[in-house]
Fold this protein.
Amino acid sequence: MNRERLPADIVLAANRINPHIRETPLDESPYFSEITGANVYMKLENLQHTGSFKLRGAFNKVLSLTPAQRLPGCVTASSGNHGAAIAYAMKKLGVTGVIFVPEQTSSVKVDAIKRAGGDVRFFGTDGLDTETHAREYAEENEMVYLSPYNDADVIAGQGTVSVELAKQLSQIDAVFVAVGGGGLISGVGSFIKSVNPAVE
């Protein structure tokens, strides 16, 4: 991944996925503002289709695939939000695919993936085992594997959160981002720092 090019790729991703996602609200939090003595805002990605920011990366990745890559279908591994996002994006774009989940995945998460149109299959009791199996399945069946976080197109898609953030708030001193696989913080941090290097 070209780090210097990532902010520009995030802008391209924002334009690409715009017809398919919601621009989520940025709401001030009176409670956190009061206890911190700062003006604290929350970017409400829980109001995104499928309930999380993961939809941004999912759409950007699937939209980035060529027709030839889409044809045999896509494969991913997830314990929930990424799987629902990929299922939703594939259904909207007419792409078939399989979502592998660990055997102990919450029934609520599995139901969310199924509601989004996903073909759910269980494998393994550990997320790493599930991901390894999904990658092997994709390779054996000549399908595209869609990583939840370790992919430049996914990172650019997640980074579109900050394109909206920069439009919604003129002065930003610091951004706090939850970190799991690292895709969201990579995208958000890259774009925000390109707009204002002083942001922490």
